[in-house]
């Protein structure tokens, strides 16, 4: 149900083709779902429309539970949509989650999904799959606290540092079970996704590479504003010597790659847990994770 054409004041991506509608150009906006599109894309507009009342929009920031659905598994729709899109057409892309997407498009699509409560628009219209990866990482990075939470951060670091593999696994399982339900379910969903990415030979993103990328995002530090000393303590000695110069993320620049940071070690250890452990949290309700 599009309203009459109006001029765009702030450039935004078209909800159908994904390309930007520039300042001063004509655009259509649906009265019910607020979908914005080029007039020429009207015929390709999804039908029927799914109304998205404004009061259902997500906050600009918050803890993970603020974005979780009302019934289990408690995984935010934005996370489900991004993961589904990546697994649909991204598992043949080299450097998935390591290669950055265009920053402006990442910001624009993230805001559109937040305004729509994560349900619209369809991410299939985003041409570059690395932009979808960027939206997911930016959403997780923008939470008020990381997925492992500030209160359990020290426990995750201690568990991941246990030398004996069996004891380490037991400790990690125990700490994971203490997470808030939304954090636990979302962590399980992401771990299964990252394992599938690591098993794709085309992506060339093994567990170590993925842990380096997602360590700062999922684990982070023990507080929202860590001191320089806290940041240094989470960083391996070799990285300190090299002054953080793209350490470990650029094969060929360093003769001996740096060891992973402490947050990266936690993610690597979590990815070493058996998939059935993570599936146990999602249970039979996993079909609810398929976005409409």
Describe the structure.
The radius of gyration is 20 Å and the shape is elongated. Mean pLDDT is 80; it is low at 50-55 and 237-253. The chain folds into 2 domains: 6-44, Wheat Germ Agglutinin (Isolectin 2), domain 1, CATH 3.30.60; 64-280, Rho GTPase activation protein (Phosphatidylinositol 3-kinase, Chain A, Orthogonal Bundle). The strands form 2 sheets. A 3-stranded antiparallel β-sheet has the order 1-4-5, with no helix packed on it. Strands 2-3 form a two-stranded antiparallel ribbon. With 292 residues, the chain is mainly alpha-helical. It has 11 helices and 5 strands; from the N terminus they run βββββααααααααααα.
Sheet with the most strands, sense and barrel status: 3 strands, antiparallel
Provide the structure class.
Answer: mainly alpha
Instruction: Report low-confidence residues grouped into runs of 5 or more.
Output: 50-55, 237-253
Distance between the termini: 20 Å
Biggest sheet strand order reads 1-4-5
Shape: elongated
Order of helices and strands: EEEEEHHHHHHHHHHH
User: What portion of the residues fall into strands of 2 or more residues?
Assistant: under 5%
Give the helix proportion (percent range): 40-55%
Report the CATH superfamily of the largest domain.
Answer: Rho GTPase activation protein
Number of helices: 11
Number of extended strands: 5
Domain Phorbol-ester/DAG-type: 5-49
Protein name: RGAP1 protein
GO molecular function, one term: GTPase activator activity
Keywords: Metal-binding, Zinc
């Amino acid at each position: 149900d599009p309203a009459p054409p109006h001029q765009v004041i702030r450039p935004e991506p078209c909800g159908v083709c994904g390309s930007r509608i520039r300042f001063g150009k004509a655009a259509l906006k649906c009265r019910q779902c607020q979908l914005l599109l080029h007039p020429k894309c009207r015929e390709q507009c999804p039908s029927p429309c799914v109304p998205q009342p404004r009061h259902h929009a997500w906050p600009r920031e918050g803890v993970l539970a603020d974005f979780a659905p009302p019934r289990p598994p408690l995984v935010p729709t934005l996370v489900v949509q991004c993961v589904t899109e990546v697994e649909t057409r991204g598992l043949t892309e080299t450097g998935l989650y390591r290669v950055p997407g265009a920053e402006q498009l990442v910001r624009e699509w993230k805001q559109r999904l937040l305004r729509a409560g994560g349900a619209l628009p369809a991410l299939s219209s985003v041409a570059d799959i690395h932009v979808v990866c960027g939206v997911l990482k930016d959403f997780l990075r923008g939470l008020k606290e990381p997925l492992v939470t500030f209160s359990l951060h020290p426990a995750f670091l201690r568990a991941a540092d246990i030398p004996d593999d069996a004891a380490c696994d037991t400790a990690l399982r125990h700490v994971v079970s203490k997470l808030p339900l939304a954090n636990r379910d979302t962590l399980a969903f992401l771990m299964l996704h990252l394992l599938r990415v690591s098993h794709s030979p085309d992506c060339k993103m093994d567990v170590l590479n993925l842990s380096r990328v997602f360590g700062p995002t999922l684990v982070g530090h023990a507080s929202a504003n860590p001191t320089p000393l806290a940041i240094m303590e989470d960083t391996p000695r070799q990285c300190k010597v090299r002054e953080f110069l793209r350490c470990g993320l650029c094969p060929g620049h360093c003769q001996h790659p740096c060891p992973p940071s402490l947050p990266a070690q936690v993610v690597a250890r979590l990815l070493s847990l058996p998939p059935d452990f993570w599936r146990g949290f999602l249970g039979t309700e996993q079909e609810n994770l398929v976005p409409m």
